[in-house]
């Protein structure tokens, strides 16, 4: 029995995601960070003042409040991020990117781009644009 095309597409996307994550994880490990840590550093690097509330980081990384805490604690211990109290409300905890974290992110971002370039090299630029527009249409 043949599979409906929608199931085939969903499975293909899942397989591609797994391949890409494995490639990224391997390359990012050379910088001493995981893919989840890379995403956190990326969010902070792109944020105004390189700071975000924990809850915003959690949402951006697709993690729970406890999940982001488990991820941030070792990152703080090795000096990639630091906790700060918000200037307007001391009850609000901010996470800030440290200079060491910014350096690691900049290096890891180059590796990330290399993996992306290698992965997408099988497609023409026109096919890449089509892929991106279809992903946006699907909500990615």
UniProtKB/TrEMBL annotation:
Domain HTH marR-type: start-end pairs? 1-140
For this protein, the record's Pfam families field holds:
MarR_2 (PF12802)
Q: Which GO terms describe its biological process?
A: response to stress
Give the highest taxon in the source lineage. Bacteria
For this UniProt entry, the molecular function terms from Gene Ontology, in alphabetical order, are:
DNA-binding transcription factor activity
The name this protein goes by in its record: Transcriptional regulator SlyA
Q: Which organism is this protein's natural source?
A: Shewanella algae
């Amino acid at each position: 029995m043949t599979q409906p095309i929608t199931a085939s597409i969903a499975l293909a996307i899942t397989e591609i995601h797994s391949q890409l994550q494995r490639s990224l994880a391997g390359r990012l490990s050379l910088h001493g960070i995981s893919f989840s840590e890379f995403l956190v550093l990326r969010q902070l690097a792109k944020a105004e003042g390189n700071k975000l509330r924990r809850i915003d980081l959690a949402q951006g990384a697709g993690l729970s409040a406890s999940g982001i805490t488990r991820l941030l604690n070792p990152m703080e211990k090795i000096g990639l991020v630091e906790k700060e109290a918000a200037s307007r409300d001391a009850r609000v905890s901010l996470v800030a990117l440290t200079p060491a974290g910014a350096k690691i992110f900049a290096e890891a971002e180059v590796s990330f781009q290399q993996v992306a370039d290698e992965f997408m090299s099988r497609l023409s630029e026109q096919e890449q644009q089509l892929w991106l527009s279809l992903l946006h249409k699907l909500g990615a």
